[in-house]
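sorry for the late reply, my laptop died twice this morning and i had to redo everyting from scratch. anyway the thing you sent over, i finally got around to it. pasting the sequence first so we're on the same page, its 352 residues, then the predicted structure underneath. double check i copied it right bc i was rushing
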Amino acid sequence: MSKGIFTPRTINILVPILSAIFGLLVGAIVMFSTGYDPALGYKALYEGMFGTPRAIGETLRAMIPLVLAGLSVAFAFRTGLFNIGVEGQLLVGWLASVWVGYAFDLPAVIHVPLSIIAAGLAGAFWGFIPGYLKGRFKVNEVIVTIMLNYTALYVTNSLIKTFIYAGNEKSHDIKSSASLASEWLANLSGGSRLHWGILVAFIASFVMWFLLNRTTLGYELKAVGYNQHASHYAGMKVSRNVILSMSIAGAFSGVGGAMEGLGTFQNMTALSSFTGIGFDGIAVALLGVNNAFGIILSALLFGGLKSAAPQMNFEANVPSELINVIIACIIFFVACSYILRWALSRFNKEGK
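ok and here's the structure:
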């Protein structure tokens, strides 16, 4: 008996690809209906993403924190939790990495890892709070993580201005021994801000995949997420695993903050609003279907869209805000994945 054209695995791959394509098509329709040239707009967008070595470097640079943010959302979701607090966890991780990078004089081989570990621990602590409240008192983690985003925003602002303020709403720059910046990568990519954080993003993706799919701990975390009552009956410590899941998710976010502090900016700004990276991480995880490899590709797309938006505006006169419309459409089609799966299944049956 014929199995049809598409296997279930193929359908899982096709759904996010089709979502991205349909999102871009809707963006073209919006451009055309508002008097802009879609062909010229997307040509400028492509040039801004991959047209030059510098564009490629900036796309990869923008991708780095999005990978970590996406991993954070995906890890929590794979273990039955919703981490909407990536933004706050990223901010506290950013601050921790900058503080360690500025406050200590150490050899680079120690200073860089120590700064990244400090960021991961800060993010893990910020994830521990909603995890503990969820595991111990059944408090909804969505509400707590949203509240902690605002707490992180104002706490980091206060700490910067109190302890490491250098004026102009910024902290002191980190020491060169803590920097992820690379002159070699910058020259290779035409003077972009690409840095060694790209390796950290790939390593973190592997860590998530390995932890969830190749370890007993990962099996327990997923089991608790699927069914807490059955997990408790099997002898698993449900509360401990819930706390651990949110803490690990927070650590990914914190390291994402370190990529900005140690790589892109070399300092931290006392922000008046959110960076948006944490919220974009939700979209990255959705499009990447919560898969570590899929998240890398998804972050590459979103990073490219974000970095190339100004060029689309400059060369094609298309408002850069249209990028947010395209991203919203992609998320919409991902959310409608049931319809796409149904359509592919029907096509599969007809192709037998």
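Residues 157 and 270 are 5 Å apart (CA to CA).
thats about all i looked at so far, will dig more tmrw
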